[in-house]
Amino acid sequence: AYILESILFTGLVSFWGLGLFNQLGHATLFGASIAIYGLVATPCILWLRHFRIGPLEWIWRWGAYLGRP
């Protein structure tokens, strides 16, 4: 969840995304971070009800162990 939240929020404020870095106030950024957390948390909870690890961790372990985790 943390990596997906970072990617989405970076896309909101960076030059390759919407470019809103110095255009939003602290309260707006705080609200956006809470909204992004809410968008990401629900699918993550549903995923982890059915699977033991997340998809990125699965790929990471597959590469680290050179086989299916």
What topology emerges from the helices and strands here?
Layout: H1 2-13, H2 26-50, H3 55-65
Helix pairs in contact: 1-2
- Major beta-sheet overview: none
Strand content: under 5%
**Unreliable parts:** none
- One letter per element, helices H and strands E, the order comes to HHH
Q: Radius of gyration in whole Å, from Cα?
A: 16 Å
Mean pLDDT: 83
Helical fraction equals 55-70%
The number of helical elements comes to 3
Overall body shape: elongated
Strand tally is 0
Query: What is the CA–CA distance across the termini?
Result: 20 Å
What is the SS-derived class? mainly alpha
Defining key terms:
single chain, 69 residues, mainly alpha, elongated
Describe this structure as you would to a colleague.
By secondary structure, the protein is an all-alpha fold. The chain is 70% helix and 0% strand. The chain is built from 3 helices and no strands. Helix 1 (2-13) runs antiparallel to helix 2 (26-50). The longest helix is centred in the middle third of the chain and has 25 residues, at 26-50. It is elongated and about 45 Å long.
